[in-house]
Structures are given as structure tokens and as C-alpha cells.
Specification:
Blueprint lengths: L41 E7 L6 E7 L8 E6 L4 E7 L5 E6 L9 E5 L7 E6 L4 E8 L2 E4 L3 E2 L4 E7 L10 E6 L9 E8 L2 E4 L11 E9 L2 E8 L14 E8 L6 E3 L6 E4 L2 E7 L8 E7 L14 E7 L4 E8 L4 E7 L8 E6 L10 E6 L11 E8 L7 E3 L8 E6 L4 E7 L2
Antiparallel strand pairs: 1-30, 2-3, 3-4, 4-5, 6-7, 7-8, 8-9, 8-10, 11-12, 12-13, 13-14, 15-16, 16-17, 17-18, 17-19, 20-21, 21-22, 22-23, 24-25, 25-26, 26-27, 28-29, 29-30
């Protein structure tokens, strides 16, 4: 939670880690660069985190400074960031931890908003601010929080404002704390040299924006935002129709307006996650995968399978490509070519039953290609997730040219790194 971003987050956004604050893009972390075929077989290696920490979001970057890609994990309940250091061969050890934030950690992104070559981490939770820390010389230092109207659920980072500074902006989905709150999407950038939040896209994001993802189009950067309104339930407990919209910057100001091709569709059922890739074609087109949680019988008590729907962006708008069922409770998606066939594969973190918490979540991979989404293309990599995380990290951790993914296990207090079986 794809085609072009300025982020280090290694999420479903596919422009991946690049030189900090540089206009030159690095290779997509989800693209295979190995000159060999890779079997469609994956294994999940667990890495423990503090008990009852409830890890939720994973980002990827060289945080230790040794050239290998490390993991930064947002811990929801302990309200910290843990850095898992890559030992150099794709295995990880606990390296450092931030101080405690002032609110629960729901989502996490990493970038260099200061343009000083140092890593910065931004977290959002249920408080009316975006908190952030700088990592320098192995130490975290807290920075002045950035005020937003309400608590939030999702962050994205990219060079959204069409100016000449080549520096990224942060986008945050806020709202959904109470039933009468109207959600908005806020842009955080520099105003007179200081970081501040600008005007939001009130109403266009729906009442309860959940997932936001940065997207690059021929017309510049855009923001995909999913309205997943838990309170929009009819009398039989089925989620009402919701939408996924496409927003763009309003000139060079910190504001957003709807794109002419927005929304993608108006009949989503609790869209929880978005990924961008080329799932059914290797042509230069943008395809968008949206996971629907399909809540039935209450806010988090769904017992029905989730669903993934794929759309393709054309000159005049979005066209449906395919849809398929996944396991219960999809909460995060990431696109990466795990089998090196030129198509994006889709990593799906399913939470299973959220109440009561129990091992029942399934970590799935849907392999891309012309038959994307058919039963023969979907692999269950691990069947014991205790609630999936909100952000999946993607990167080549062992330097073999093949992408891997890192998925948080909420109730299991661990991160799973999935990679191909040699």
C-alpha cells in the first residue's frame, strides 16, 4: 500500500528506493533483474519482534548504511519503529528501535523530505498529527509533529507537486475516527521552508479514506485513494457501495482536486488495499489491483472471502480487466515479479478473522500472466497469519536479482520474508 514514486517504502508502489531526494529513479524494486528463470515456489522465513507489539507496516531501505536493504517495521501497540538489519545475505537481525511515538502506529513511510541525505520516517495513527523521526548515525531523533485535521490510516510519498525542487511530498488519509467525521486527503510539503499540511480533497475521498497510493501517469503524479467506510452498513450488515478515486495536485499548492478520470469505480465493497503493476500484460500500461474486504455481519467480523479486482488505465478512464476471490480479510497488497517472467505478481496479506484474534490469516501470491487470478496461479505461502499488516515491503534482500517481500504478522509479533525456493 507502484509505477512511479519517490519513496523508499517498498510498498505496492513500484518506483521503489532511489537516491535520496534525487530526480533520477532507481530500478523498480519489484522488477526481476536476474538472468535466469525462477520457480513458482515460495517460502516464508519468520523474524520475531517484541511480544504484543502488533507490527503493521514494513518499509525497505539501506537504513544501516552498508549497502544491503534493511527493514523498518512500524509497531502499532508499542508505538515505535524497529529496524531489522540485513546481515548481507537476506537474513535479518534486530538492530535499533525508535523512541515511543505519541499515538498508535497504523502506517509508516520512509523518504528524505529534508533533502539532506538522511532517512526520515513518518507515521500516522489515531491522533491529529503526523509524527516523524530522523535516522542519523544509528540514532533516531524526534521532529516537530505535523498537524492534520483528524487521526489517519494511510500514508504515501512521492513528488506530487509540479515544481522544480524534485523533493517529495507526503500524502495522508485522515478521518474515520467517529461516525460523523468526513474524511479528507492532506498533502504535507514545504511552506516557507517549514513542513505543513495543505488543503485536503474533502468529499472526493469519501467519508473514510483508508488506503492511498501514489501513481505516475503521463500527466504527472496522482494519488489513488480508497473509501472504506466501516459505518456505511445497511440494515443487514453488508457494506454499502464505496469508491476508489484518482486525485491530482491543484497547481503548485498543497491541495488536491479530482482527476478527470476519477473514480475508478463506484461499487467497491470496503476497498482496503491498492497495488499498481502489469499483472496481465507486459505492455507499457498501468493496471491497478484493489482488494475488497467484503465485510458481512459487522465491522471486522467478516467470514466471507475477500476479492481482488483489476482495472487498466487508458486515455479516457479505467476499464475492468479481471476479478478473483482471495482469503478472508485482505488488508495489504504489493506488486513484484517474484518468478521473473516479466509480469507483476500480487502479494496479498489476508488477516483472517479479526475478532476474536486467531491464526487464520493466509499469505497468498497471485502470479501474473494471461491467466492472472485463476486458481492455478494462486499460491498460499503461509496459512497462520494472525492478522495481516497494512503495508508490505518489497526489495532484493539477498542481491540475487529476484524481488522478495516482507509482510507483518499483527498478532504473531513477527515479520515474514517470502522468497523463492532455490
Amino acid at each position: 500500500m507502484t509505477t512511479t514514486t519517490t519513496t523508499e517504502s517498498g510498498t505496492s508502489e513500484t518506483d521503489g528506493p532511489r537516491p535520496l531526494c534525487s530526480p533520477v529513479r532507481a530500478p523498480d524494486p519489484g522488477v526481476c533483474t536476474a538472468r535466469r528463470s525462477v520457480p513458482r515456489a515460495l517460502a516464508a522465513a519468520p523474524y520475531p519482534l517484541p511480544e504484543q507489539s502488533n507490527p503493521t507496516a514494513v518499509t525497505v531501505g539501506d537504513y544501516v548504511g552498508d549497502g544491503a536493504l534493511d527493514l523498518a517495521v512500524g509497531l502499532h501497540t508499542t508505538q515505535t519503529i524497529n529496524i531489522l538489519e540485513n546481515t548481507g545475505n537476506g537474513e535479518f537481525v534486530d538492530a535499533m528501535q525508535s523512541d515511543v511515538f505519541g499515538h498508535l502506529v497504523v502506517d509508516l513511510v520512509a523518504t528524505d523530505l529534508e533533502c539532506d541525505g538522511e532517512h526520515e520516517f513518518f507515521v500516522v495513527g489515531y491522533g491529529p498529527e503526523v509524527e516523524w523521526v530522523r535516522l542519523s548515525g544509528g540514532d533516531f531523533s524526534a521532529q516537530t509533529p505535523i498537524v492534520v485535521p483528524e487521526g489517519g490510516y494511510s500514508l504515501a510519498v512521492g513528488d506530487l507537486i509540479p515544481d522544480e525542487d524534485n523533493s517529495p511530498e507526503i500524502v495522508v488519509a485522515v478521518g474515520h475516527v467517529t461516525e460523523d467525521v468526513v474524511g479528507s486527503v492532506q498533502v504535507i510539503g514545504r511552506v516557507d521552508g517549514e513542513l505543513a499540511s495543505g488543503a485536503g480533497a474533502m468529499g472526493y475521498a469519501g467519508r473514510s479514506p483508508w488506503e492511498i497510493t501514489m501513481l505516475q501517469t503521463d500527466q504527472g503524479a496522482r494519488v489513488l485513494v480508497a473509501d472504506s467506510d466501516w459505518f456505511d452498513l445497511d440494515e443487514v450488515g453488508v457494506a454499502g457501495d464505496q469508491h476508489v478515486s484518482l486525485l491530482q495536485a491543484s497547481g503548485d499548492a498543497l491541495g488536491l482536486v479530482p482527476d478527470d478520470r476519477s473514480p475508478i469505480a463506484m461499487d467497491f465493497q470496503n476497498p482496503y488495499a491498492i497495488a499498481v503493476g502489469n499483472f496481465t500484460t507486459t505492455n507499457d500500461v498501468v493496471q491497478i489491483a484493489v482488494a475488497e474486504k467484503l465485510v458481512v455481519g459487522g465491522v471486522e467480523d467478516s467470514i466471507t472471502p475477500g476479492r481482488v479486482r483489476v482495472f487498466e488505465l487508458g486515455d479516457s478512464g479505467f476499464a475492468p480487466v479481471t476479478s478473483f476471490d482471495v482469503e478472508v480479510g485482505p488488508r495489504a497488497l504489493a506488486a513484484a515479479d517474484l518468478d521473473c517472467d516479466g509480469y507483476s505478481d500480487l502479494v496479498i496479506s489476508n488477516s483472517g478473522l479479526a475478532a476474536p484474534a486467531s491464526p487464520g490469516g493466509v499469505l497468498q501470491v497471485a502470479y501474473g500472466g494471461g491467466d492472472f487470478g485463476s486458481p492455478s496461479t494462486i499460491e498460499s505461502v503461509f496459512t497462520g497469519l494472525q492478522g495481516g499488516g497494512t503495508r508490505i515491503g518489497v526489495g532484493d534482500f539477498d542481491g540475487d536479482g529476484v524481488p522478495s517481500a516482507a509482510v507483518a504478522d499483527w498478532g504473531g509479533a513477527r515479520v515474514f520474508v517470502i522468497d523463492h525456493v532455490p
